[in-house]
Each structure stands twice: as structure tokens, then as C-alpha cells.
Amino acid sequence: MSKADSENSLDWLGLATIWFGGMVSVPSLFIGSTLIAGLSFTEVLLAGLVGFSVVAGFMSLESVAAVDQRRNTVELASSAFGRSGANLVLGLALGLSLLGWFGVQAAVAGASFARILKMSFAQVVPASGASLLMGLLMMLTAVFGFRHVKWLNFIGVPCKMALLAYAMVVAFQSHSWAVITQYRPAPEHRIDMLTAIGLCIGFFSVGGVVSPDYARHARTRRDAILGSVLGLLPSAMGMAACGAILAVIQQTYDIVEIYARMGMPVLALSILILAAWTTNVMNAYSSGLALNGLLHWPATRRRTATLIAGVMGSLLAASGILDHFTNFLMLLTATVPPVAGVIVCDYWLARSYRADEAQRRPWQAQGIAAWVCGVAATLLLSHPIRSIVGIVVAAAVFYLLTALQQPRGSGREWRSPSS
Predict the structure, then answer these.
(1) Buried b / exposed e across 210-249, counting CB within 10 Å, b at 16+?
(2) Homologous superfamily of 3-405
(3) What CA–CA distance (Å, rounded) separates 416 from 419?
(4) 4: helix, coil or strand?
(5) How confident is the model at residue 360 (pLDDT cuts 50, 70, 90)?
(6) Contact 226/16 with Cβ under 8 angstroms?
(7) Fewest CB within 10 A of the end CB: N or C in the chain?
(8) Which of 81, 69, 94, 63 has the alpha carbon at shortest distance from 293?
(9) Is the dihedral of CA 191, 192, 198, 200 positive or negative?
(10) Is 341 in contact with 370 (CB distance < 8 Å)?
């Protein structure tokens, strides 16, 4: 077996496992507990199905392009944005998003730590201070202890699964399924269905955009599509449902409070901290890489970039980003999905993908302009469907600008589906 064959030997199950592992996290429970505050349980499932299907759609299209070209996200985006443009756009959109996620996870860990101190030692510590401390510790793990992260995951991933299973068992020991099906939110807290769909799109939009980083190692197009769809939809729907169920039964939409009310609360909160920690080390590391590329720093300064990203994320946690989780998801919906609109249009619609041209040109004005228009449309439109509109606008603008620039029929040659 050649080296190329060994590197591109990920089947659909292997790819699906990667996405499943990423979805089993504390924020995945948050999306369910957030939506159930304004929707019935059936509506939560419907919103999740539509929103996550939209993500799975552009995720699959990007993944097939990644298999065809054996290139990661930045390399694919370089055709539409230019090499420097791709670093700028992805560095801003993804780097800031990862910083936000770092803040959310650090805030969860900090709030859990503060609850443990209060319950076990009668010590009252501000959640903001605890969140800042947790964020800094997580940052140091990413900066200096990344080689040992795999061992943290060996412990953390089974603990996350056990924590979820334990929560569900405890929940249904004293409640029936009818409590879930008969639940209705208070009228003043109702969420528009389209808004809920937008929140679901924003929740995993970052993962959808960077899917080529993993899918490029898939064996075939079929493996890339099946791995993306079957890795995302069942896990995302399941985690959202669990978050919604726990919120209804515990009568609170705060994940930390939900686990604090269970039996053995200190153990549950400790595992919650570990679960947030394992995910957040990757957030800090990836945001550091994005910042490194954005600033055009050499790879040797990766630790410095990770240090800066971790400090910024910790400050976000201390400032109360957890209290603005919905607003944060809407921000992701505005900035990240239009990137996918440009990449998909470049490869599938405009058929203007040029790997060699992308290497020569540092900037591609039409790609950047299309992304800006997509973000602007999302921010300016008040209708809840704006998350999908941003993708469509970005793709449409890129298509028009590309059509005006290059002669008709000069698009790329298609590779066979078996490639």
C-alpha cells in the first residue's frame, strides 16, 4: 500500500466516529436546553432536523471536494479567496468562533467549580473568577501539555458518555415520558421556528465549514458523504434531545444547575468540568493556529498564539458569555456559513476551482466580496431565515462575479465519482 493510499484510508464509519466524538459535548446539550425554553419537544426535534440537515448538506458538498482534491479547508478556500485571503477570512471567522466556544466551555467549568466549592466547603466564589481561572488552566494545558491531551481524552470521552447516561437514568427514575411530550413553554418565552433552525445551523456551522480537514482522508466520495451525514445528524439530534429532556425534568435551562440537582452532584459537576476541559484544549489549540495564520507568524510561534487566544477566551468566559449563548450562536450564523457558500459555489456551481491559480494569487477579490455580502445580508436581515439567506447570497454574489470575470465554459474539469 502506498503512502497516499494509507493516508486516504478513512472509511465512512471512521469519519462518522470523528464527528460523533465531537458532538458528544457540553455545548451539544446546551442547544437542546436552549431551544426547549421556547419550543415543545417535538418542535425542538423538528428544528434540529432541518437546521442540522442544512449543515450536513454543505458539509457533504465540501467533503466531496476535499476527497476529489485531497486538500484541507484553507487549501480549498484559497481558490476562491486567494491564499492570503483564505487565511484572513478563515482566521477571522473560525478563529473568533473558536474563541467564543473556548469562553463557553470555560464558563461551564468555572460555574461547576464554583458550585462544588459552595456545596462541599461552603465557600462562595464568583462564577466569573472561577471561569477565568478555569480558562487559564485550560489554556496552559493547550500551550504546554498538548502531547498529553490524548490521555485526557481517553479518560474524558468515556466520562462524558457515562455522565449523559447517568443523567438520563436519574431523570426517568422519577418522571415518565408523558412529562416530555406534554411539555409546553410559557407563551412569553416562545421562539420562532425559523429562529430555532438558525440557531441549530449556527451551532455546528464551524464544524461544517472545516469538514474538509477530516474528509480529505476519506477513501471515496461515498465515504465522505455517509460519514458526514451519519456522523452529524444522529449525534446532534440525540444530544439536543437529551439536553431538552433534562431541562424539562429539572425545570431549568442551565446545564450546570441541572447536574447540580442530581444525585452525587459533586461527582457529576466534576465530570462536567473534565468534559469541558477535554473539548476546550482543542478549541484553544485550533484558535491559536487560526490566529497564527491570520498574523502570518511562523509555526514556531504557535505557543504564543495559543497563549493569546486562551487569555482572550478566558476573559470572554469571565465576562459572562454563557449568559449570551443564544446571541453567540446568532453571531456564528452570520459569519461562518457564508464561507461555505463561497467554497461550494466555487467548486460546484461556478466550476472555477483552480488549485494552481490559488497558489499564485494571494488575494481573490470576488471571494472576499461574496463573503462580505453574505455576512452583511445575514446581519441586516431581520427575518429568522437569514442564516440560510447568508449562504445563498454569498454563493450568488460569487457566481455572478466569477461569471463576469472568466470566459464561459472555462471551468474546471470534473473528476469521476470513484476518484
Answers:
(1) bbbbbbbbbbbbebbbbbbbbbbbebbbbbbbbbbbbbbb
(2) Hydantoin permease (1.10.4160.10)
(3) 6
(4) helix
(5) low
(6) yes
(7) N
(8) 94
(9) positive
(10) yes
CB 366 within 8 A of CB 84: no
pLDDT tens, position by position, 295-349: 878 877 878 988 999 999 999 999 999 888 888 887 887 899 999 999 999 999 9
Cβ atoms within 10 A of the Cβ of 120, count?
11
Enumerate the domain spans of the chain. 3-405
- Tell me how far apart the alpha carbons of residues 241 and 235 are, in angstroms, rounded to a whole number: 10
Q: By the 8 A CB rule, do 83 and 358 touch?
A: yes
| Cell 453574505, located at residue | 374
Residues 6+ apart with CB under 8 A from 64: 215, 221, 224, 225
Sign of CA dihedral 255, 257, 263, 265: positive
Residue 120 — φ and ψ, nearest 5°? -95, -35
User: 296, 270 in Cβ contact below 8 A?
Assistant: no
3-state secondary structure 39-71: CCHHHHHHHHHHHHHHHHHHHHHHHHHHHHHCC
DSSP 263: S
* Residue 48 CA from chain centroid, whole number: 14
> What is the rounded CA–CA span in Å between residue 184 and residue 174?
19
pLDDT over 60 (residue 363): yes
pTM, to two decimals: 0.85
The stretches of 174-264 forming alpha helices (DSSP H) are 177-181, 193-209, 212-215, 221-250, 255-260
Q: What average pLDDT does the chain have?
A: 87
Task: Tell whether the torsion through CA atoms of 78, 84, 87 and 88 is positive or negative.
Answer: negative
Q: Write the pLDDT tens digit of every residue in 55-69.
A: 999 999 999 999 999
Closest by CA to 214, choosing from 382, 356, 70, is 70
What's the chain's length in residues? 419
pLDDT tens-digit series, residues 231-251: 999 999 999 999 999 999 988
* Cβ-contact 321, 27 below 8 angstroms: no
Nearest alpha-carbon partner for 166 in 70, 87, 270? 270
C-alpha cell at 346: 466555487
